[in-house]
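WARN retry 2 of 3 for item q-0093 after timeout on previous attempt; input resubmitted unchanged.
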Amino acid sequence: MLLRLLFVLLIALNIAVAAWLLLGDSGTPAIDPNDGGVPKLKLLAELPEPAATTPAPATSARTVAPAAPEKSTSVALPAMPAKAASESPVVPPAIAPKPAATAAAPNAPTSPRRSYRCLAIGPFANQVDLRAARGAIASRTARSRQRQEQTSESRGWRVFLPAQATREQALAQARRLEAKGIKDYFVVTAQGELQNSVALGLFHDPANARKRRDEVVAAGFPARMSERTETTPVWWLDVVVPEEAGGDIRRGIRTPGVAARTTGCF
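OK item q-0093 returned
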């Protein structure tokens, strides 16, 4: 079976080769280099030398600018002397190179660096006044912040007799004051350091407080005088402003009791 198949393939191969020899293309003949229709090649050394060009002489004292390329605007040139025209060519302003930007002189003055100062504005008794002041100077401040502090405020001066060990002793001291003709007193019963003491008055003017104390001391009682203080919260506004705006900030403060002072920057 295998030999029969090989025999068939060999016959088919012979038939294909015979058909190719009989019907195949014999090829295209080469073109004769001497054919008249083909241009001949020439070396560069065989070409004739180009004729030397001579510059055109100046025809007049006025030189007309060469035609500008398409889509450009030509500019008329002013008249020039004949001598100057012959010595150097004229460059049209339209195509003249722009001068390079000159570098700044090394000693040219520069703008001074802006300096700032820090101010503490206050104290404000409440945040309403603080916010109003902050909004009024916001356009002149670089930055700002608010802070709260506790302060002791004077509420006047009081005159009193030192506290006794018991309430009965305080009442007995008050009766002795009455016997000496000293009026306007009361025994303190509230809890605290002044409990069981005898109050002799509260004065806004320290001079009046001293006068009352001396009067009771002259009557034979150990009267004392002390300032009455109260701790209350206050608010401050710290701002950073340009050096030249510091005076305007101080003059612009209208809240009573509020001032601006220099403080550390933040």
